C-alpha cells in the first residue's frame, strides 16, 4: 500500500502558463563560479544541476552573462559565444532527462565589476558614473570596483539587443525560458532605483522613466522568444550592491502592473526581510510585504528570501505566492522536494564552500538519488544519517559508500550560497 501523506502545499501541482509543475519548490539561481576563464560552462555542471532536478520541478540556472561587458565575478557562465551555447546544451539535456523545467537567468552586472573583467580593460558601464565603494567580496577578498562609465541614451538600445540575443541563444541551448535578472544591484536595477539612477534623459527621473529600460528588455525578449518563456527577478526592497530606492513599494507595484501587459511566465521577487548580505533581518518583522505585488501581478509569482519548509507551506497555503525559491537548503539537500514531502532532516550548509571551483566536495550527510528508493528506505536513511558519520573517500574525493547514488555520480556537496 502506498503511504498516505497529509496535503503539503509545497508538494501540490501548478500550471505555470504552458508548463505543468508537480510541486512548488524552485531551485533559486545560485552562482557557483565553476566555469573556465572564457565563461564557458563545464561538464560537471550537468551533474550538479541534474542532481537537483525532479520531474515537474522548476529550476533557474545561475546568473549568465549576456555579453563580454556583462561580467563581474570570476568563472561565471556566459551565453554570448558559440562555445558557451554549445557547452550549455548537455547541461540542459541532463536536467530535461529528469523531467524538470529549466530557465536560464541572464544578467548584465553593470557597475558591479571592474576593468579586469571588461574587454580591453575598459570601464564598466552603468546608468550612472557613481562608483561603488570597496566592499568585502567573494571569500572575504576585497573587491575594488572601478568607476563606471555612464551609458549614453543612444547606447541603451544596444544593451537591450544584447539581452534579446542572449535569450535567443538560451533557446538554442535548449532552455525552456529565461529569467531576466532585474535584482540585487546589477545593471537593470541600477536603472530602476533612484539612489543610483541620476539620469536626466528618458531613462531617469520619474518612476516610469526609471522602469523604461527593464520594460524594454522584457518587450524585446518577449518578441524574440515568446512571452510565455520570459520571466524577471526583482528586489525592490533590497539594497544589494548599494542599490536602494526611496519608495520600494511603489517601484515594486509599478513593475508588477507594467508586466501584466506582456503575459510573461512568472515574476520572481525577493522578500523585504533580507538584508544586504542576504540574511534575514534581526528585527522581528519587516514593515513591508510582497503581498501587494503578488496581488497586482496577474501571472505566476515566486518569492525568495530565507524560507524554510514551514514558512513556504504557509505562504502557498495563504495564497501569498505560487512558488517558493530555495537556495542554500537546495544546494545542501539536492533531494529537497522529497525531504520536504517527508518532513525529513536537512543537511546543514557549509559557508566555507559558498564559492569554490572544485565541484567534488563530499559531506557524509549528503544523499542523492531518491527516486528509485522506497519511502521506507528513504526515511530510514535520512533519519539515521548524522553529521558525525564518516564516509571513506577515494583519491579524488568520491565517496566509496554511496548507498543511494549511482556508480559514477558526483555526491552533492554540503554547501550553498546567497542567491544571485
Automatic annotation (TrEMBL):
A GO molecular function held by the record: FMN binding
The organism's place on the tree of life at top rank: Eukaryota
Record's keyword annotation contains Nucleotidyltransferase: no
Domain NADH:flavin oxidoreductase/NADH oxidase N-terminal intervals: 10-345
Keyword NADP: yes
Region Disordered, residue ranges: 115-134
One matching Pfam family: Oxidored_FMN
Alphabetized Gene3D superfamilies for the sequence: Aldolase class I
Keywords annotated in UniProt: Flavoprotein, FMN, NADP, Oxidoreductase
Record-linked InterPro entries: Aldolase_TIM, OxRdtase_FMN_N, Oye-like
Requisite cofactors: FMN
PANTHER family listed in its UniProt record: NADH OXIDOREDUCTASE-RELATED, NADPH DEHYDROGENASE 2-RELATED
Family per similarity comment: Belongs to the NADH:flavin oxidoreductase/NADH oxidase family.
Protein name listed in UniProt: Putative 12-oxophytodienoate reductase 11
Originating species: Senna tora
Amino acid at each position: 500500500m502506498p503511504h498516505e501523506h497529509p496535503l503539503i502545499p509545497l508538494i501540490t501541482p501548478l500550471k505555470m502558463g504552458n508548463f505543468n509543475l508537480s510541486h512548488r519548490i524552485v531551485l533559486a539561481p545560485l552562482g557557483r563560479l565553476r566555469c573556465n576563464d572564457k565563461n564557458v560552462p563545464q561538464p560537471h555542471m550537468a551533474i550538479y544541476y541534474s542532481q537537483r532536478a525532479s520531474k515537474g520541478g522548476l529550476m533557474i540556472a545561475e546568473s549568465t552573462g549576456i555579453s563580454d561587458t556583462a561580467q563581474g565575478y570570476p568563472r561565471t557562465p556566459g551565453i554570448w559565444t558559440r562555445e558557451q551555447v554549445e557547452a550549455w546544451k548537455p547541461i540542459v539535456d541532463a536536467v530535461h532527462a529528469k523531467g524538470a523545467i529549466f530557465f536560464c537567468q541572464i544578467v548584465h552586472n553593470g557597475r558591479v565589476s571592474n576593468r579586469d573583467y571588461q574587454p580591453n580593460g575598459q570601464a564598466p558601464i552603468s546608468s550612472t558614473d557613481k562608483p561603488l565603494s570597496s566592499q568585502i567580496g567573494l571569500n572575504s577578498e576585497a573587491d575594488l570596483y572601478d568607476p563606471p562609465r555612464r551609458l549614453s541614451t543612444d547606447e541603451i538600445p544596444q544593451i537591450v539587443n544584447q539581452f534579446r540575443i542572449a535569450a535567443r541563444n538560451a533557446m538554442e541551448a535548449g532552455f525552456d525560458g529565461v529569467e531576466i535578472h532585474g535584482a540585487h544591484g546589477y545593471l537593470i536595477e541600477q536603472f530602476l532605483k533612484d539612489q543610483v539612477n541620476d539620469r536626466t534623459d528618458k531613462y531617469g527621473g520619474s518612476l516610469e522613466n526609471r522602469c523604461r529600460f527593464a520594460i524594454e528588455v522584457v518587450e524585446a525578449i518577449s518578441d524574440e522568444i515568446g512571452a510565455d518563456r520570459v520571466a524577471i527577478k526583482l528586489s525592490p526592497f533590497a539594497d544589494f550592491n548599494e542599490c536602494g530606492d526611496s519608495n520600494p513599494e511603489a517601484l515594486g507595484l509599478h513593475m508588477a502592473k507594467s508586466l501584466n501587459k506582456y503575459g510573461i511566465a512568472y515574476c520572481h521577487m525577493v522578500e523585504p526581510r533580507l538584508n544586504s548580505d542576504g540574511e534575514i533581518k534581526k528585527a522581528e518583522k519587516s514593515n513591508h510585504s510582497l503581498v501587494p505585488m503578488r496581488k497586482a501581478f496577474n501571472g505566476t509569482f515566486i518569492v525568495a528570501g530565507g524560507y524554510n519548509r514551514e514558512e513556504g507551506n504557509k505562504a502557498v497555503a495563504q495564497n501569498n505566492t505560487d512558488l517558493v525559491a530555495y537556495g542554500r537548503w537546495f544546494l545542501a539537500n539536492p533531494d529537497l522536494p522529497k525531504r520536504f514531502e517527508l518532513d525529513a532532516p536537512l543537511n546543514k550548509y557549509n559557508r566555507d564552500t559558498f564559492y569554490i571551483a572544485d565541484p567534488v566536495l563530499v559531506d557524509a550527510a549528503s544523499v542523492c538519488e531518491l527516486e528509485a528508493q522506497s519511502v521506507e528506505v528513504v526515511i530510514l536513511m535520512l533519519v539515521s544519517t548524522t553529521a558525525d558519520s564518516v564516509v571513506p573517500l577515494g583519491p579524488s574525493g568520491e565517496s566509496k559508500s554511496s548507498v543511494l547514488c549511482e556508480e559514477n555520480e558526483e555526491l552533492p556537496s554540503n554547501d550553498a550560497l546567497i542567491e544571485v
